[in-house]
Amino acid sequence: MDAPITDPRTAHPSEPLPPQQQSAPGFTREMHPQPDHGETSYVGVDRLRGRRALITGGDSGIGRAVAIAFAREGADVAIARLPEEQDDAETTVAHIEAAGVNVLDLAGDLRDDGFATWIVERTVEAFGGLDLLVLNAGWQHDRESLDEVDPESMERVFDTNLRSLVRTAGAAVPHLPPGASIIVTSSIQSRDPSPSLVDYAMTKAAQVAFVQASAEELGAKGIRVNAVAPGPIWTPLIPSTGWDDERVATFGQDTPLGRPGQPAELAGAYVFLASEQASYVSGAVLAVTGGKSL
Q: What is the pLDDT of residues 103-132, one digit of tens each?
């Protein structure tokens, strides 16, 4: 049977999104339409059988899509998330369990250095090791102008997107065997920054520097380090960013494919970078942007 060919312009909804706003960090149950994380579509073929993965921000959005894909590819999966994201985490855990692999749900705030390192220790203890580290947790909020970037809010963005990333990666490296993979969720904002997300964009550019420097350092240990740079993806981060109804409605409409992406459409990129098929890929930034230039 021939493989189906799907028009990427119509593979997912392309009409304007309805008005909606949430308080941060945002919750999947309140989103309309509901994001697609691959719940009914992702089919694994054992590309990660026996691997042990830790995914920060793994309860929802891109993190949930990666957790589902990794589990269906055979990996044991630990997710780290905020305590208030309990409902989303329970749904993600159920999908991981349904794949027949081991799961670990770790609640806390990654801005706490102790938690950022403890999640590695707990994963290693539960799974007997760690092979895949996905540094996906992120925080952003809209700013009207540069003088609105107050120190407290900027600190939250930097601590979530950068400080915790470095702390968790540093804790993980001594446990990672040759062949292990670290994958960072960067953003198109790293190369095409929006003025209203200036502090977020700064962290995403810094993440690319982290990936490239770490790939050079850790290559000698046989550890690969890469990033995925999403474009406009429909996750709880979007309605909780603080945009007005018009900005939400037009989200993703400026891409060449004419629509926002769904979390499920990124899962394959993470699986590829985690798998043996990417054995010579390190220091790379893989763009999943609907055609927008990185």
A: 999 999 999 999 999 999 999 999 999 999
**Candidates 42, 200, 270, 280; catalytic one:** 200
- Taken in order 188, 194, 199, 200, the sign of the CA dihedral is negative
3-state SS record for the chain: CCCCCCCCCCCCCCCCCCCCCCCCCCCHHHCCCCCCCCCCCCCCCCCCCCCEEEEECCCCHHHHHHHHHHHHCCCEEEEEECHHHHHHHHHHHHHHHHCCCCEEEEECCCCCHHHHHHHHHHHHHHHCCCCEEEECCCCCCCCCCHHHCCHHHHHHHHHHHHHHHHHHHHHHHHHCCCCCEEEEECCHHHCCCCHHHHHHHHHHHHHHHHHHHHHHHHHHHCCEEEEEEECCECCCCCCCCCCCHHHHHCCCCCCCCCCCECCHHHHHHHHHHHCHHHCCCCCCEEEECCCCCC
Q: Which amino acid is at 245?
A: D
- Cα 119 from Cα 285, distance rounded (Å): 25
The residues pairing with 135 across neighbouring beta strands, listed in sequence order, are 184
pLDDT, tens digit, 9 for 90 and up, residues 138-195: 999 888 888 877 888 899 999 999 999 999 999 999 999 999 999 999 999 999 999 9
pTM here?
Answer: 0.96
Closest alpha carbon to 171 in 71, 80, 277:
80
Task: State whether the Cα torsion 279-101-88-159 is positive or negative.
Answer: negative
- 270 catalytically annotated: no
